[in-house]
Structure formats: C-alpha cells, structure tokens
Amino acid sequence: MNFVDEVEITVTGGKGGNGCLSFRREKYIPKGGPDGGDGGQGGSVYIQSSETLNTLIDFRYKKKFNAANGKDGAGKNRFGPGGSDLVILVPVGTTVINVSTNEIIFDFTEKDQKVIVARGGKGGLGNARFKSSTNQAPRMTIPGELGDERQIKLELRSIADVGLVGLPNAGKSTLISNVSEAKPKIADYPFTTLSPVLGVVKVDVDQSFVIADIPGLIEGAADGVGLGISFLKHIERTKLLLHVIDLSPILENEDLTQSFYSIKQELEKYGPSVSDKPRWIVLNKSDLFPSDSISKIVQEFINQINWHTNYYVISSVTGEGTKELIGDLAQYISSELSA
Description:
The chain is of the alpha/beta class. It is 17% helix and 23% strand. A hairpin with a 2-residue loop joins strand 10 (197-204) and strand 11 (207-213). It has helices at residues 172-179, 257-270, 272-275, 291-304, 322-338, and strands at 6-12, 45-50, 64-66, 86-91, 94-98, 104-107, 114-118, 149-156, 162-165, 197-204, 207-213, 240-246, 279-284, 311-313.
C-alpha cells in the first residue's frame, strides 16, 4: 500500500435552500395570504479521526468534498429539509491546516474526535415571513446562502512512543521487526524503508508501546536530500528517540563518530521539536565482533562522543541486548505517562 501523509483538499458546505414565494389558494378564500416556507439549512462538512485508518491515500484522487444543499421551501408554510452533513474520516495523528492562513484548525490525537471545517449556508426566508399590517401580500423572499468553502491541508504525523533514527542500513527495520509485530521490508541496500513503519511492542498483558521506524537519514536530509526529511515529522510526537548506529564500519577501520554526528546535525537542523527530545544510543550488529573485544570498542566510542546517558549494545539479528532495551523503554514510557 502506498503511504500518503500530506494532501490538500477543498471542502464546501451545502447551499441553503431558497425561501418560497407562495399564496394560499383554497376554495372560498380568494385572497389567501402568503404561505411560502423557508429553505433548509445547507449541510456542513466535518472531519473525524478514525483508528482504522493509517494513511491519507484515499485523498490522492478525490480532492473536493461537498456537503448536501438544503431544499427549497414550499407552499403551505412548508420548510425545506436541511442538507445532510458530510463526515470525512482521517487517521489519528492528522493535523488540519487552513491553507490560506496556515493556521492549525485541529490536531487529531485520539480516535473519534470531530471538528467542523465548512459550515452549511443558512436557509432562505419564504414570503410568509414578510407579511405585515401594511403589506398583506408580500412578494419578497430571501434566497439561501452559500456554504463556506475552504482549502485545507491534511498532514499525518504518526502517533508513536518511540522513534528510530539512523543512517540507511543501520538495522532499524530488523530491530522493529524482531521486537514488534511490524513486518517492514528488509534488504541490504540503502532506503529499504520507504515509508514510516509502526510496530506495537507488547511488554506484558497490560503494557505495550508503539515504535516508529522512518527512512534512514543522510547528510542534508533536513534540507530535502534523500527520503528522511519527508518523514521526520512522524517522530515529532514521540517521547523518546533511539539513535541506531551500525557498528560494522569499525571492521573496515572507519570512524564511527561521523555517523553519530551526521544524524545529530540533521536533527538539530530540522528543529527543536525533534532535536530536543530525549535520545538513547543503540549500537547494533554486535554479533559481528568477538565478545572479548566489543566492550572496549564500545567504550572508546562512547568516550569519543562524550555520551552521558543511556546506550545499549545489541544485535537485532540474534536478539542479544534487546530484552534489556525493551524493558528500559517500557519503564521510561510508563514513567512519562504517569508524570
């Protein structure tokens, strides 16, 4: 399935029905008074969040959404029925933005939230409304009003507790597939992950949390290079970032600190909504190293980058170290929720 996380649509409320021009025409009442009824209210357009959706792909080809018009009034003081409202469903995590003002209309963070985005037009007035002592046979009516029309942008930012960041092929996809039910595409080439992947990690019967894996970042990602910039917004809502670093370049005598600082720089360039988040380091592919040398290698790297918070040495292939990582993540998220 294609992943669509940003789209612009036009929403229009229904037009109000026109007021009716009518006079009573009954036997023995040759000069019946006005009896034109009012028009019905136009339908309004609402947007509602749904937990069954996870992409905006339904909006790729349908860009215009109109609520139903109100019906015209009729004789015998009959009011026109109101137009039906239109409810547009979007995934939880969608932000609705007014294109003309760039203002946020609503941010859907829970299921079944609902907001009006285009009101229907008022129904017009029939001539019965204008009868007076000086005008017993008014021919005046008022037409129904047009509904609101608004161009809005829908932006989907995934709802996840933990976000994975790192260079392409750092092993993020393998990690999320091993600790959750997510099944991302995994292969030995850059940008295997082409769209955000969400995985639910079940700690026990009563506790679980969500991890988001986004496409690997490369230098210049915050400026639009590669795929990562399009998806950094999907980790803005997370409570914690895991910076996954591939240990294998050390086998080729490459400097591991460069991969650390390149990701750090891209997060800072993107902005504080991402760069200021708590971040733990996950050093992956420990299975490629002899057990008696890995500790020294890791400690040298940690000292080089002057790291003073959590770090973990794991193998996403064998599962080594992942149990401790998941346990600490669960404890951290639980403490954040209860804070």
